Structures are given as C-alpha cells and as structure tokens.
TrEMBL record:
<keyword id="KW-1133">Transmembrane helix</keyword>
<feature type="domain" description="CAAX prenyl protease 2/Lysostaphin resistance protein A-like">
    <location>
        <begin position="256"/>
        <end position="344"/>
    </location>
</feature>
<feature type="transmembrane region" description="Helical">
    <location>
        <begin position="254"/>
        <end position="271"/>
    </location>
</feature>
<dbReference type="Pfam" id="PF02517">
    <property type="entry name" value="Rce1-like"/>
</dbReference>
<dbReference type="GO" id="GO:0004175">
    <property type="term" value="F:endopeptidase activity"/>
</dbReference>
<feature type="transmembrane region" description="Helical">
    <location>
        <begin position="287"/>
        <end position="304"/>
    </location>
</feature>
<feature type="transmembrane region" description="Helical">
    <location>
        <begin position="126"/>
        <end position="146"/>
    </location>
</feature>
<feature type="transmembrane region" description="Helical">
    <location>
        <begin position="332"/>
        <end position="350"/>
    </location>
</feature>
<dbReference type="InterPro" id="IPR003675">
    <property type="entry name" value="Rce1/LyrA-like_dom"/>
</dbReference>
<dbReference type="GO" id="GO:0080120">
    <property type="term" value="P:CAAX-box protein maturation"/>
</dbReference>
<keyword id="KW-0812">Transmembrane</keyword>
<keyword id="KW-0472">Membrane</keyword>
<protein>
    <recommendedName>
        <fullName>CAAX prenyl protease 2/Lysostaphin resistance protein A-like domain-containing protein</fullName>
    </recommendedName>
</protein>
Length: 351
C-alpha cells in the first residue's frame, strides 16, 4: 500500500513548478487529496483487519495490485491458520463416528454386497402378515392337524416303529412346508407378476465359490454351539429327551436314517430358505441396508427354531447363508449350504 505522506510531498513539489494561481489550486487540491488518502488508508486498514479470513481484495488506488496477486503459498498458510483457529472438535464424538464407519465398511467387505437392493412392491404390513401366518401354520399343522389325522386313523407317533416315526416326520415336514408356501403365494398373489430378481433359482452362475467359503464357517458355528450351551445349560428340573432321529441312529435302521436324511437335507432347507432368505431378507432391504437385513433375518431365523440353547449358532449360520444368497442372488446356493450344514450335523450324530 502506498504511503500517503510521500504522495502528499510529491504533489507539493509539483506545485512549485506551477504559476501562483495554479500553485494555490494545487496546494488546495493536495490537501484535499492527502486528506482523502488518509481516509482511504484508514478504511482499507480497517477493512483488511475485519475481512482477512475471506481473502478479499484491498486497494487504495485504482492502479494498485489486488490482494489476489499474493503467492499461493501465502494463501495456503492463511487457510491453515483458519483451520487452527476454528473450534476444536470433540475427540470422543470423532472416535465414535470412526468406529461406526469402520464397522459399516467391515460389514460391506465381509458380505461384499453387489448391485442394489431388491425392488419390494409390498409394505411392512405384508411382511409381518406373511411371517406371523407362516409361524402359526407351521405350529398348527405340526402340533394339531397331523396328530389329529393320525389319531383319526387309529395310531399315534409313539406307537410306531423307527421307520414309521421317520415316515411320520417326513409327512409332517412336507405338510408344514406346503402350508407355508401356500400362505406365501396367497399373500403375494396381488403383487403378481413379481420383479425378476425375486425367488430366483438357478443351477448356473458363480455361486460355487461362495458356498465353499460358507462351508469353511461350519467349525466356527459348531464351536459357537458349545459356547451357547455353556451360557444356557439344561435346567436340572427338565429331563433330557432323546429325539426320534437319535433313536433311529442308535438302532442303526437304514430306512429310517434315509427318511430322516431326506427331511434334514432336502425338505427343511427348501422351506426355510424360501421364507427367510427368499422372502424376508429381500423384503427388509426396503427399510434398511442389505447387511442389516441379513442380520435381522438371521435373528428371526434363530427365534423361529424355538431353542434358546442353539440361538447363537443359528444366528451365525443365518448370517452366512444370507451372505451367500445376497452375493449370488440365487436361492439354490443358500439351500445347498443349508443342506450341507444339516448333513454335517446329521453325520456328527452318527459318530
């Protein structure tokens, strides 16, 4: 910025070269000019002090270089000073946000969700309706209708042989599954035709690698079963019963074991995957992220088994099968993984 005093002296020296009248006018103009220069310099200094952070141009003369002509290094320095001069961030809140962000990124890496969410034409009311009706039908058919029909035919499950009990279990499981599929079809009939990515069942694709990775999680699921038993042991007052499957294994009845193998390896994986991975998981993506839908559907899957001593391994197993289904968008992949897990448990019982 130019010095007003120097400018005033310059005008005085120039006025000496003029005639007396012109000299008088020059002196008068120099006083006015120097006074205006002082006013300008005062206003510029005040403006510069209040607007330093905004990097505005400051000029006392029209021909003077603007503030934007400063080197870039000085502008970077000023920006750094602004950051240092701002309010300090709360370190604890920053740490919490970083933790949440890291968890979401880790979940996305683990599940590696490709593409976008499913297109869900129904609302939460339909989701709740289907799940409640499915659980109610599963319990009503298995606990009331089939036993009533067996009693009307003149026999009960307890009076049957090992093969008869195995056949009884197979027929009960088929009846429960068909009732659940009928309810699902009835509730979703008004939304037909469904989008192409719903209930996709395909033998082709690159799902084999995902199923193989899911199988590597079986030892961890089995280990978690022991942890769950330690957390929720059997009550001393409740007797430990032996299931009909275990009785057939002990008796080494090959026909009964084959019938039970059909139940655990084919029927149960098919019905459960259609409801929990085929319907519930994609439906939840309308209201939450995909990884969260996997977690919530896994918890519902574990609760539907009505066994507190297997809650933790079933949640982990549901998450693994949900991740495989979401990556492949193929119900056959999750059904196969579910079937392999049931076979793993069945073979372990036979030892």
């Amino acid at each position: 910025m130019s010095n007003p005093t120097c400018c005033h002296c310059l005008v005085q020296h120039l006025s000496l070269l003029l005639p007396p009248v012109s000299r008088f006018r020059a002196l008068k103009q120099s006083r006015i000019y120097s006074r205006s220069l002082c006013n300008r310099s005062f206003r510029c200094v005040e403006f510069d002090s209040t607007c330093l952070k905004q990097k505005r141009e400051v000029c006392c003369f029209r021909h003077e270089e603007s503030f934007s002509g400063l080197p870039e290094a000085e502008l970077v320095q000023d920006k750094q000073l602004e950051k240092l001069g701002g309010p300090e961030l709360d370190q604890s809140s920053v740490a919490k946000k970083d933790l949440v962000t890291s968890f979401k990124e880790a979940a996305d890496v683990v599940f590696r969700i490709p593409g976008k969410r499913w297109t869900v034409p129904w609302t939460a009311e339909t989701i709740l309706q289907v799940m409640l009706l499915w659980i109610a039908s599963f319990w009503f058919v298995g606990s009331w209708i089939v036993p009533f029909l067996a009693h009307a035919a003149g026999f009960s499950k307890e009076s049957l042989t090992y093969r008869g009990q195995a056949l009884y279990s197979l027929l009960t499981d088929v009846a429960e599954g068909l009732a659940g599929i009928a309810i699902l079809h009835r509730c979703l009939s008004r939304f037909q035709p469904l989008p192409s990515d719903w209930f996709r069942f395909n033998l082709g694709g690159n799902w084999q690698f995902d199923v193989g990775l899911g199988c590597l999680m079986f030892p961890l699921v089995n280990r978690l079963s022991q942890v769950n038993l330690n957390l929720v042991p059997h009550l001393p007052s409740s007797p430990i019963t032996v299931s009909s499957v275990e009785q057939s294994i002990v008796a080494r009845d090959p026909v009964a074991m084959v019938l039970y193998a059909i139940v655990v390896a084919i029927c149960a994986p098919m019905w459960e995957e259609i409801v929990f991975r085929g319907f519930l998981l994609p439906s939840l993506t309308k209201y939450m992220p995909v990884w969260c839908s996997i977690l919530v559907s896994s918890v519902v899957f574990a609760i539907a088994h009505f066994n507190a001593q297997r809650m933790l391994p079933l949640i982990l197993l549901g998450m693994v099968m949900g991740a495989v289904f979401t990556r492949s968008r193929n119900l056959f992949a999750s059904m196969l993984l579910h079937s392999l897990w049931n076979c793993f448990v069945f073979i372990d019982l036979m030892k």
